[in-house]
Amino acid sequence: MQGIATTFGRTLNVVLLAATLAALSGCIVPHFYVDDAVKEVPAANLRKTEPPHPVQVMFEFQTKGAPNAKATEVLKARVLAQIKDSSVFADVSEAPVADGALLSIQINNVSLTDDVARKGFGTGLTFGLVGTSVDDGYICTLTYHADAQAPALVSQARHVLHTTIGNTSAPLNGTPVASAREAAELLTRQVLSQALNDLTHKTDFR
Amino acid sequence: MRDRVLLAGLAGLTLLGLGGCATHSMPEPTASFANVEKLRTAQIRPAMVGTFMLAAGKPKDMDTTLGGLRSTSLAPAHGSFALQLRDTLVAELKNASLYDGTSPALIEGQLTDSFVDAAIGTSSGRLAARFTIKRDGHLVFDKELVVDEQWDGSFMGPVAIPDAIRHYEGLYHLLIGKLIDEPDFRAALVR
Q: Where are the domains of chain A?
């Protein structure tokens, strides 16, 4: 079974590499910081469908554009619940709905730091004396069809996760979280709310 | 000096451990938005999906195990890669409201290739199948389709192996996407 860090992203592999290499010394703990620039948009700010109608939702987490089934499985229930709780739609379903409304949610994890694996490897070999700081980018893309014939409306939002390992300072622009899973859940919630806010305020959104 | 030797030894042992000797299972087949979107605009009739099996003459283990992942292997969700392809197609059709278990249009398939190589430098994967469609018992489509992919392969197993697995799993959607794009496929299922 893949660890939670490898489940969520390529850059987070650095955590596994560094931590495993240094595990025998017990001196390295990865620290996760969700970037402060992106905040959650309250559901009350979102525009509702008018008249209210149900929607079919498809969610996929990707790593560098390739489907990541394990991360999709971990996050899917929360993503569906967030859409449902937003009350933008009358109902949310994974199966097709009567009028053909369809919302696709894709979150793509891309590496923002060059040579990530090598840096993690170096941190592990030095038992944390040489610290590593890496950034993961998350691009959330929503594609929405109001009904079976409607053209696609597309919205996008971006987020960043900072990870430090070993002897390096915390980023100035990040909120610390306890684990990779907590980080993934928080940033998913924030970036999804931003993309949904953008989508629902488009002129053609209905 | 002794510390350096110890450090090198520990690093070596850990790297061996990271390589693992595990068998991963593919996830339950799901639909991809790209293919559902294509199907919704394809103007085709609902179809049913019949038998998918390994093509005659192919090695039996091609349908059950996938090597090429260094010391790791990948198994299909339900014992057969041909079945994995079938179930992925069913999921795509159902999500586009185009699956009908009583339709006179029947899609069947034979797995003709399944391959991945998590090589250092350039990794690669391939998936191929021969698809047929019968309408009211008459063969109206018969074509073998192949999808190939290449990507950067890390020298580190913990990076390269999950990468290769994700790319291989993605080939199932790419192959079905290629099927949907086939003009003859659309013609065979025209409303």
A: 4-200
Pick among 3.30.2400, 3.40.50, 3.90.1010, 3.20.20: CATH of A4-200:
3.40.50
Cis peptide before A51 (omega within 30 of 0): yes
**Interchain pair B97, A20: CB under 8 A:** no
**pLDDT digits 0-9 by tens, B41-67:** 999 999 999 999 999 999 999 999 998
Q: Are A53 and A87 in contact (CB under 8 A)?
A: no
Give the three-class secondary structure for A33.
Answer: strand
Q: Is the pLDDT of residue B8 over 80?
A: no
CATH fold of B21-188 reads Rossmann fold (3.40.50)
Q: What is the pTM of this model?
A: 0.85
Contact B167 A66 (CB under 8 A): yes
Cα(A134)–Cα(A132) distance, integer angstroms: 7
Q: What residue of B is the nearest CA neighbor of A106?
A: B33
What is the interface size between A and B, counted as CB pairs within 8 Å?
A: 86
Inter-chain residue contact B14 with A96, CB threshold 8 Å: no
Scanning every residue of chain A, which has its alpha carbon at the shortest distance from the alpha carbon of B21? Answer: A1
